[in-house]
Amino acid sequence: MKFFMANKRTTWLAALVLGMGLGCGVQAKTLHWAYQGDVNSLDPMSLNETFTKGFQDAFYEALVAYNKDLELVPALAVRWENPEPTKWIFYLREGVKFHDGSPFAADDVVFSWKRSLTAGSDFKSFGGLASEVKKIDDYTVEVTTPQPNPILPRYWVHLYMMSKSWAEKNHATEAASVKGGASSYTNLHENGTGPFKVVERHPDVKTTLKRFDGYWNKDIPTNLTEIVFQPITQESTRVAALISGELDLAMPIPVQDWSRLEKEPDIQMLKTPEIRAIFIGMDQHRDELLFSDVKGKNPFKDKRVREAIIRTVDTNVINKKIMRSTAQPLGTLIAGSINGYDESFGQPYKTDFPRAKKLMADAGYPNGFSVQMDCPNDRYVNDEKICQAVASMLARIGIKIDLLAQTKSKYFAKVLPQGGNNTSMYLLGWAPATVDAEKTLIDLVACRNAATAAGQFNLGGYCNKDIDALIAKIGVETDQEKRNVAINTAFTLLRKDYGYLPLHQQPLSWGVKKDISVEQRADDVLDMRTVIMP
User: Fold this and answer.
1) Hey, which of 322-331, 351-360, 376-385 has the most confident mean pLDDT?
2) Per CATH, which fold does 1-38+204-272+508-534 belong to?
3) HEC string of 181-200?
């Protein structure tokens, strides 16, 4: 993993700036940066999507956080302990202020947990890990879990804390659905405890953040005083703006532009491998497939059809032609750096076109069928191009893909549970927030269960009761060796079921001015606390 750190002189200057105070005549430092799409909402519980969560990390905080190596560090909790198998105690940081000046305390933790369980929340699976969150005193909370959970703090890295009084004042005690748009107050306004606050928000155009003078941590290295973010969908426009100097940082950079930018004297390319797996999912829940010419049945319920699809799509070709050999082809839903990964279930499937044709014929579809595939065009590296390649390959076995590629806000509103999982086939990327295989199993593989929020992102409704039983064991097993055996068994069963079409582990792809120091985390989060400008 590569990290770009400041030299000693730059670090010393940054510390001097912080020590003097940013309002004492120190030169303003404004970072102009762009991503291929906009943040979907400012509400920290509206959408469990990496870019949205990472963007919100500049102004909202959780009890715990990740450092550059994705290790847990204190945030709004100074320490935590697990005195009993089903109890966690978090000791809160004193003297923390929300951006409106109100103090952070235990009541806000209890409120934030309850809010994560409300109808519009995309974080029910996080909050649902606790059966109770109780205030012991103003700076101590006790969390009770229905069963032992050895990695609860890792789950709650992105369970951001909100002000109870502010939410009540603005009628925002329930999470704003990502479908709510401008009608939901918290989609357009924030009140966190982070180092920056949002001062201007124009969805799909520009969002401006300013340094929060009351931030509790005076030791963060950044010298930024302002952040100007613009969503720029067009790849060529994003790259041109970086080269011309209009942008200081752009992400992602199309892989086909890497060699060009590496020749630019004032730009550095950051290409750490990401922990995200890219895959295709299929509706295996409905009795009749939507958006298809097949009536009265669902071909994806037939394992032979799923295997035929997987045996037809050549992930090595996609890597070479679309990803320019920068991705790592996968045969499972977790990247190699995720705890629990094993090559026994992670190797890419072997393509076998003759077998695929026979499987389709045996399943009753010798001439194939038509189906719509949903794909974002501004979320993952080369996402629409990948979908086009998959569609072209599937045509060989008669599956005619009607590709619906659209901006991620529309895409997620259609395919997520809030939109009724209104999809038959879809491309998705997944990086478990815990950096542990269990999170992927719970969110993507577990049978859907609205009460427990299991399978919340299992958009196709895949279900295997044997895997569910293993997930239950993994969640409470404190012996890591036994836990990994159960993880291996679960993913092996999924592989034999042909439940998903895994594609690859994608690379991170950031372009940054050479004189800017920034740490590139493998979860694709730009931590503004680490950015130092000259």
Assistant:
1) 351-360
2) D-Maltodextrin-Binding Protein; domain 2 (3.40.190)
3) HHHCHHHHCCCCCCCEEEEE
